[in-house]
Amino acid sequence: MARVLILGGGFGGVVAAERLAEQLGDEHQITLVSRTRQFVFYPALVRLAFGKCNPKDLSFDLRTAMLDRRVNFIEAEVARIDPFARIVTIAHGDVEGRLSYDYLIFALGRRLATERITGFYEHANHLLNIDKAIQFGKAVDNFHEGRAVIGMCPGSRLPVPMFETAFALSRRLAERGDRDRVKITVVSPDQFGMEIGDEAATALRKMLSERQIEFLHNFPIKRLTQNVAMTELGRSLDFDLLMLLPPFRGASAASDLGVTNAEGYINVDPSMRVIGHDRIYAAGDCVNFEGAKMGHMAVRQGDVAATNVAAEIDGQAPVAHYFHELKFVIDEADNNGIYLHKNMWADGPATLRHGRFWSWAKRAQKEFWEVSHS
Ligand SMILES: Cc1cc2nc3c(=O)[nH]c(=O)nc-3n(C[C@H](O)[C@H](O)[C@H](O)COP(=O)(O)OP(=O)(O)OC[C@H]3O[C@@H](n4cnc5c(N)ncnc54)[C@H](O)[C@@H]3O)c2cc1C
Question: Is 337 in the pocket of ligand 1 (CB under 6 A)?
């Protein structure tokens, strides 16, 4: 009998738990630990902010969903991991103290490092959880003129909601008759496009300019006051409404493992095994792969990690391997969408598609995910 412990009830952890339940016999024990019993479908948060769906449309109860799959669910806060004693320390929740494991899958996502931007807490909106998305939606309702800045901080590694927010805001203001009174500026911390190639970056910029949205690149925000965003070198930008994606860092509970890069992301090999520790795998935003951090990557990595844990329990070498691809759909808020696909482990530009299908596909993906996992 093996005890498999999965940390984190997001895309990576949920898929890993489901795959293990399919692949392991009943004699093995599968436990999923997560901070809250609510699974949140993050890609729909921009739609939530703009009132296009309700909180209950993008979340489901993990305890019930896992029970149906014979996975023990524990709602608790993970504090530390001792990879040598194979023990996880729980700070508080359904259980307190220590949980032992034979195999561990670490899927605690990433941390929002808002402390790296002076004034972020006081002056910025973001939409990276349900409450913050609703709060930003209220700020949009009360905003009628001036400049809106929508941007990413250095290290935020998530361009999709930045573009979707700019498109949705432009459309909302036009519907209300306020568009002519508002300047919208999208801010990127670096030379946007290095990751996706010139053609894709040009297409995105064109979509912005068609909506009279200004694009400002190489503007790494470091400090905020009530109405001004500043870089370290003293460049500044005024705003009346701000939505900013904060810097990301690896999950705090990974810091004791001694296997992270400078930003706290866990080093893994393509079988999703943590480099330097036995019987520990990792999946999702917490791992150290280059580029944006996306849900489809977490899903594939959770699948690979679970398949290889099952193989290892069976005495076999890893049978599944992760291949690093970037795929995303940006919903343009007018029934159109742009789809981008890039092989991250090869040179060459991204493939780009554009049209009504992609916007529909993104919404359909949410429905499919919820029906098939809840
Ligand atoms: C607004 C927004 C839009 C996005 N749009 C897209 C998109 O269009 N396409 C796409 O592919 N991706 C998109 N993403 C990215 C995608 O949501 C993430 O890549 C994905 O959620 C990562 O999954 P994960 O399982 O690694 O981490 P998470 O989903 O973050 O899950 C981590 C889990 O661990 C739990 N946890 C964390 N720390 C602890 C702890 N100490 N103790 C216990 N539990 C803990 C958390 O509560 C959470 O349940 C978007 C994200 C956001 C925020």
Answer: no
